[in-house]
Amino acid sequence: MIELRIQGMTCQHCVAAVREALADVPGVTQVVFVDLETRRARVDGTAMRSTLVEAVIAAGYQVESEDTER
């Protein structure tokens, strides 16, 4: 499981965009959640963290550097 702290989400449309971007990454088996209030996303699967970060950035958002892989 990988958890990311996302910057730049301001509405539910942003949440949906981040969720879709993460779901499209090869190796993602489940986007567990994308939460606007906590600015966190959690993903299950075999995808590399760096690939997830790239997908979020390509969708127009930022990822805080203190993220952890769990």
TrEMBL record:
UniProt entry keywords in alphabetical sequence: Metal-binding
Entry-linked CDD domains: HMA
Domain HMA: 1-64
Signal sequence, renumbered to the chain: none
A Pfam family the protein falls into: HMA
SUPFAM superfamilies: HMA, heavy metal-associated domain
Name of the protein: Heavy metal-associated domain-containing protein
Species this protein is from: Thioalkalicoccus limnaeus
